[in-house]
Amino acid sequence: MHTHQRSELFIDGRWVAPSGSGVIDVVDPATEVVIGHVPAGDEADVDAAVAAARRAFDPAITVPERRQRLRRVIDAMEKRLPDIANLITAEMGAPVRIAQTVQTQVPLAVANGFADVLDTFDFEERVGNSMVLREPYGVVGAITPWNYPLYQVVAKVLPAIAAGCTVVLKPSNEAPLSVFAFIEACEEAGLPPGVVNIVSGPGRVIGERLASHPDVDFVSFTGSTGVGSRVGELAGQSVKKVALELGGKSANVILDGADLATAVKVGVGNAFLNGGQTCMAWTRMLVPQTHYHEALDLIESAVNRYTVGDPWDPATRIGPSASQSQFDTVRGFIDRAQRDGARLLTGGSERIRDIGFFLAPTVFADVDPESELGQEEVFGPVLAVIPYTDDDDALRIANGTPYGLSGAVWAADDDTAIAFARQIQTGQLDINGGPYNPTAPFGGYKKSGIGRELGRFGFEEYLQTKSLQLRARP
Ligand code: NAP
C-alpha cells in the first residue's frame, strides 16, 4: 500500500529532523487504514521556526518583491493541485468531485484574489497633516483545521506573504499531508529561508506555544470556538494581535413568498457540502409554518438523491466523517437530538458501512431552536429544520444562537431579502442564491470569531498602521 511518510519539518528554508522522535498517524477515514505519518514536533521546533521567521522578516520589503514571492507560490501550488486533491480525499475523505473543485479551485481563486489586491493596494495615504503607512505586521503564527486543509492555509499564508510577513504554520493533525505538499510548493517557489515554516504536532503543544510565543506578533487561528478562546487567552497574555475564525450554526431563512423549491435544493446542498464539515454550512433551515409540510417533502426528496460512499467514486456526494472522533461526536449529537424530541425525517446515527466512518445524511424536523441541535455546531451531515410563525419569529430564531458566521435569506425579491439580512448578526449571507465570492470579507460575529479573511479585508489584517505627523508646508 502507498503511504506518505513525512519525517522532517520545514524550518529556515530546509527540511530538518524534529527535535523529538514522535510521529502522528494519518488515517484514511474511508478505510480506517494508516496512510502516512508526519512528525510530532515540540516547543523547541516552534522556537527554531519562530527564530527563523524573525530573521527572515524585513519590514522594508518592497511591494514588487512580495508580488514576485506570491506569484511564484501560486504557480507552484497550481501545478500540484491534482496531487493535493488526491491527498485531501485520502486523508479526510472528501469525495473526489469536492476535492478537485471546492477543496482546490477555491483556494486558487482565493490566492489569485490576494495577488489582485496587492496590484492595486495603496500602502500610503494622507489623513489631515499625517502620512499614514501600512507596514507588514511581522511574524505570524498560523493554526489551521482539517476540513478544507489547503483553503485554510492559503487564506493565511498567502496574505501574510503579500503583506511582507513571515509565517510559522501549524496544520491540523487530521489532514496534514496536503499541507506538506503546499509547503513543497513554497520551497519550489524559492522563498528566502524562514519566510514560511511548518511545525506539525499536537495542537496543545505547538498551537499553544505559537499563541504565547513572545516573538510571534500575530496569531491567526481557524478552528473550534473552544480552542479559539484558549488561543485568544494566550495571545492576550502576551499582548499580540489575534484573529479567530471559529464555528457556526448558520441559518438559512426562507421567507414567505420565496421560491421554496430552489431555496430548499440549494439549502440542502449547502448543509451537506463536504459532509457538513463546513464552518459556513447553513445547518438550520428556517421555514414558514404555512409551507412547512411542502418544505419537508422537498427536503426529503432532495436528500434521497445524495449518494454516500466511496470518496474515490465520482458519483459520491458525501464521503465519511473525517475521523473516528468526529464520527463519534456527530453520532452523539444525533442520538441526543432524538432524545430531545426532534423528529428524525431521514438518516440516523447508524454506521452505514462496515468499514469507514460513514453516516447517512440526516435531517431532523420540528427542532426546538433552544435545544442542543438548534444551538450547537455538529460539523457533520445533520440538518435541523425549524418552523417559524412570522418574520419576527424567524429573525429571533436566526439570531438566537451564540454564533454568527454565515447564512442565507430567500424572499420574493432581493430588496425584501436584503432588508431582512441587515438585521441578522452574522458575517456573511447569500441573498436569494447569490454565488460564493472568494474575495468578499469572511468571518464571524459573536462567538464565530474576530477578524476577517479573504480579499482586501483579509489582507489588511496582516498590516500594521503607522502615522507620521507632517509639518505644514512652508
Ligand atoms: P480544533 O480542534 O479547534 O483545531 C484547530 C487547530 O487548532 C488544529 O490545528 C489543532 O491541532 C489546533 N489546536 C488544538 N488544540 C489547541 C490548543 N490548545 N491551542 C492551540 N491550537 C490547538 O478544530 P478542528 O476540529 O480542526 O476544526 C473544526 C472546527 O473549526 C469547527 O468548529 C469549525 O466550525 C471550525 N472552522 C471554522 C472556520 C472559519 O473560517 N470560521 C473554518 C473552518 C473550520 P490538532 O490537529 O493537533 O488538534
Detail the poorly predicted runs: none
What distance lies between the first and last C-alpha atoms, to the nearest angstrom?
A: 77 Å
Query: Residue share in helices?
Result: 25-40%
Strand order of the largest sheet: 15-16-17-14-13-18-19
* Secondary structure category: alpha/beta
Q: Which small compounds were modeled alongside the protein?
A: NADP nicotinamide-adenine-dinucleotide phosphate
Give Rg in angstroms: 23 Å
Supply the number of helical segments: 15
How many strands appear in the DSSP assignment?
Answer: 21
Write down the overall geometry: globular
User: What is the average of the pLDDT values?
Assistant: 97
The profile of the biggest β sheet is: 7 strands, mixed
Strand content: 15-25%
Which features does this protein show?
six-stranded mixed sheet; binds NADP nicotinamide-adenine-dinucleotide phosphate; oxidoreductase; 474 residues; Ald_DH/histidinol_DH
How does this structure look, described?
- Residues 15-467 form the Aldehyde dehydrogenase domain.
- Its EC number is 1.2.1.3.
- By secondary structure, the protein is α/β, with parallel strands linked by helices.
- 39% of the residues lie in helices and 20% in strands.
- The chain contains 15 helices and 21 strands.
- It has helices at residues 43-56, 63-92, 96-99, 102-120, 149-163, 177-188, 203-212, 225-237, 260-272, 292-304, 324-339, 372-375, 391-398, 414-421, 455-460, and strands at 4-5, 9-11, 14-16, 23-28, 33-39, 124-127, 130-136, 139-143, 166-170, 196-198, 218-222, 241-245, 251-254, 284-288, 343-346, 362-365, 382-388, 407-410, 430-431, 449-450, 463-469.
- It has a seven-stranded mixed β-sheet with strand order 15-16-17-14-13-18-19, with helices on both faces.
- Helix 1 runs parallel beside helix 7 (203-212) and helix 9 crosses helix 10.
- It is globular, with a radius of gyration of 23 Å.
- It starts with a strand and ends in a 5-residue tail after the last strand.
- The model has no long low-confidence stretch (mean pLDDT 97).
- It binds NADP nicotinamide-adenine-dinucleotide phosphate.
- NADP nicotinamide-adenine-dinucleotide phosphate binds next to helix 7 and helix 8.
